[in-house]
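Weekly modeling sync, notes
Attendees: S.R. (lead), two postdocs, one rotation student

Agenda item 3: backlog of single-chain predictions. S.R. asked that every request posted to the team notebook include the full sequence so nobody has to chase files. The rotation student volunteered to paste the first one in as an example of the format we agreed on. Action items at the bottom.

Example entry:
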Amino acid sequence: VTSNLQFGEWNTVFGDNRLTSAIIDRLIHHAHIMTFTGESYRLRNALSANILKK
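Predicted structure, as returned to the notebook:
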């Protein structure tokens, strides 16, 4: 599962604090959480592909 939202912002998606906490609890149990910063390769490739099409 990937998301560009911090866990604290997931409530805006699900709308319920208890539901959001339960979902996060089940997702991160025994998980490795990786946080990336910097430029998105997919965005850069999509933008360059769009420029080439024009």
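Discussion: group reviewed the output briefly. The CA atoms of residues 9 and 15 lie 10 Å apart.
Action items: rotation student to repeat for the remaining queue; S.R. to check formatting next week.
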